[in-house]
Structures are given as C-alpha cells and as structure tokens.
Amino acid sequence: MKSKDAKVFLEALDELEREKGISKENLLLTVEQALLAAYKKNHGEEENVEVEINRETGDVKLYEVKTVVETEDLYDAAIEISLDDAQEIKKRVKVGDIVRIEINCEEFRRNAIQNGKQIVIQKVREAERQYIYDRFKGKENDIINGIIRRIDEKKNIFVEFDGIEAILPTTEQSPADTYRVGERLKVFLAEVEKTNKFPKIVISRKHEGLLKKLFELEIPEITSGLIEIKAVAREAGSRAKVAVYSADPNIDTVGACIGQKGLRIKNIVNELNGEKIDIVIWKESVEEFVSAVLSPAKVKSVEVIEDENTARVIVDNSQLSLAIGKNGQNARLAAKLTGMRVDIKTENSSKEDSLEGEQSE
C-alpha cells in the first residue's frame, strides 16, 4: 500500500468512526482477516502467515510466523524454522520461540488498498443495516413520528424518521387520512424484520396497535396500570371499540378514558381524523361482555355456545338494526373484540327458527 493511499485509507476510517459510529479498530481487524484469507487462497492454506496494518501509517505488511525447533530435528518448513536459521534473523532466539519473518510480496501490497476499500464498503453496509435494524427493532409495537417526504404514483407514502425512510403502503393507510408532503405523521411500527438487504420496516395507520398506543399516550391511568386495555377492534377511519378494565372499583374507567369535557378521547379521535370510538367495560362473564360490546344497542339475552365459539344474542325488534350496525359494522366489531361469532336475532325470529326446527323433526 503506497503511503499516500494508506494515509487516505486511514483518514476515511476515522471519518466513518466519527459519522457512523463504526469502530476503526474493528474495521482494521476485519480488513486484516480478509486480506489474510485472500493471501492463503492464492498461496496455500498450509503456511502460517499474518497480515498487519500499521495503525499510524496504514502500511500493510505480511509475515510468516514460525516456531523455532532444534537444528538437527526434522521439521515442517511451512510452520517451523531451525534454530540456526532463526538466529540469523534474531540472535537471542531460542527453541520454542515464535519468529515473524516479513514476506516481500509487492503485488499483494499493491492490491491491498483496493481489497481493503471493498471490504470496508461491505462492512459499512452491514453495519448500517444492523444499525437501522437495532434502532427500529427497539421501537417495534410503538408509535413513531416522521415527516412525509414524497408520495409516489401508486399513493405509497414515503416517511422519513431522522434520515431513514420507510414506506406506508396503501394497504396500511386509513381511509380517513389525508397525506401531504412535509407534514408530520404518527404511525404504528408493526414489524421489523432482517433481510439480505435493507431491513423490512412495516408501518401502519390501520393497525389496532396504533389506537391502543394512542390510549396509552393520552390516558395516564393506562400507563400506570390502574386501567388495562383488554381488547381493541378497529375498522380504520370509520369506527373502533376498545374494551377497558380496572380492578379498582373506585375508578370511573370509562370516564377516565373520556377525560374532562371529553378532552382525552377527543385528542385520540382528532389524531385518527374523526374515527368514532366506543369505550366498553370488559366483563369476566362472556354473556355480560358480549352484551356490553353491542352498545349502544340494548340486549335482552346472550347464550354462549362454547363448542361453536358463538354468542347467540336476542334483541327487541327496535334494537336489531342498532345492534347489527350500518352494513353490519357493529356486529363485526363485536365479533373482533370478543373473538367469537356473534349471531344477533330478535325474539320473534328466534321462536320461528325453533318452530321450524321442531316441524322438520
């Protein structure tokens, strides 16, 4: 490695350490190991050699490393050296000592700088990928704030997080949202996965986790553990249901979530651009919970059929459309929240079903 090239090489490593936080010493060790592997590939594995890069000058040197043995003994010249030959190199050497003999390999030294550059570029890319992965992995299942940098022709949103860009695809966008370049945006970091290239970063505005985290941010009683979110169901941009619970009977669970003058829930609704949110009390009794989840409809009775994972719900005729909701939305959200199939009927239709069943028998 020429002294000028070597100096530039070391300066580049210094800059990488300052800007990227990648250890200069680790990079030099990696380059040494890679150069050694390249040498052995071309000259044979049997030789015991070392590659050394001077930390001050950047000069590359190659050494044979041999163990000193008795002159009269038979020995392996690839890894051993006789005492007589060793003493010509270093007078005070004795049997058992290690001798390093510099190899004059100009071609290897000339290629070292180019090889070193390629190795460093590869290691920098690997380090950057690892840095991005570690940084985002630590925020997985949380809300992160970014700035919309561009929107492509397919309506994918490119969001920047402190110099790193992630894509909010159309499949993860809420229909209630409008996106403008330059605006700040809160998204839910759903998943971070290692790949052979850039880490896969999944961000979303539709995920139930976004709503759950917004509740945690706005409602201190949830953060402190006084109130627990048991379940969340969402049809992004339209309506959501959140089941909450507190073991403390003195806490007004729903009131705490709504906040004084509705401020807390209003902040959440504003962030979701008008998405309606129903807050229901979680009940240990499945029948009571299903009844509560179908709010604002009033339920007459609930029968749980465990084998079918189904809740059969009876309501008055006047409550049927309210229980089912517009386009079946209330029933769908109830099913998501409870994890059960919710079968809603009026008392009359239920009796008719029973009669038909009896007649068929």
UniProtKB/TrEMBL annotation:
<dbReference type="Pfam" id="PF00575">
    <property type="entry name" value="S1"/>
</dbReference>
<keyword id="KW-0889">Transcription antitermination</keyword>
<dbReference type="InterPro" id="IPR013735">
    <property type="entry name" value="TF_NusA_N"/>
</dbReference>
<dbReference type="GO" id="GO:0031564">
    <property type="term" value="P:transcription antitermination"/>
</dbReference>
<dbReference type="InterPro" id="IPR015946">
    <property type="entry name" value="KH_dom-like_a/b"/>
</dbReference>
<dbReference type="Pfam" id="PF13184">
    <property type="entry name" value="KH_NusA_1st"/>
</dbReference>
<keyword id="KW-0694">RNA-binding</keyword>
<comment type="function">
    <text>Participates in both transcription termination and antitermination.</text>
</comment>
<comment type="similarity">
    <text>Belongs to the NusA family.</text>
</comment>
<dbReference type="GO" id="GO:0003723">
    <property type="term" value="F:RNA binding"/>
</dbReference>
<dbReference type="GO" id="GO:0005829">
    <property type="term" value="C:cytosol"/>
</dbReference>
<dbReference type="InterPro" id="IPR010213">
    <property type="entry name" value="TF_NusA"/>
</dbReference>
<keyword id="KW-0963">Cytoplasm</keyword>
<keyword id="KW-0806">Transcription termination</keyword>
<dbReference type="InterPro" id="IPR009019">
    <property type="entry name" value="KH_sf_prok-type"/>
</dbReference>
<dbReference type="GO" id="GO:0006353">
    <property type="term" value="P:DNA-templated transcription termination"/>
</dbReference>
<dbReference type="InterPro" id="IPR025249">
    <property type="entry name" value="TF_NusA_KH_1st"/>
</dbReference>
<keyword id="KW-0805">Transcription regulation</keyword>
<dbReference type="InterPro" id="IPR030842">
    <property type="entry name" value="TF_NusA_bacterial"/>
</dbReference>
<dbReference type="Pfam" id="PF26594">
    <property type="entry name" value="KH_NusA_2nd"/>
</dbReference>
<dbReference type="InterPro" id="IPR003029">
    <property type="entry name" value="S1_domain"/>
</dbReference>
<dbReference type="Pfam" id="PF08529">
    <property type="entry name" value="NusA_N"/>
</dbReference>
<keyword id="KW-0804">Transcription</keyword>
<feature type="domain" description="S1 motif">
    <location>
        <begin position="141"/>
        <end position="206"/>
    </location>
</feature>
<dbReference type="InterPro" id="IPR036555">
    <property type="entry name" value="NusA_N_sf"/>
</dbReference>
<dbReference type="GO" id="GO:0003700">
    <property type="term" value="F:DNA-binding transcription factor activity"/>
</dbReference>
<dbReference type="InterPro" id="IPR058582">
    <property type="entry name" value="KH_NusA_2nd"/>
</dbReference>
<comment type="subunit">
    <text>Monomer. Binds directly to the core enzyme of the DNA-dependent RNA polymerase and to nascent RNA.</text>
</comment>
<dbReference type="InterPro" id="IPR012340">
    <property type="entry name" value="NA-bd_OB-fold"/>
</dbReference>
<protein>
    <recommendedName>
        <fullName>Transcription termination/antitermination protein NusA</fullName>
    </recommendedName>
</protein>
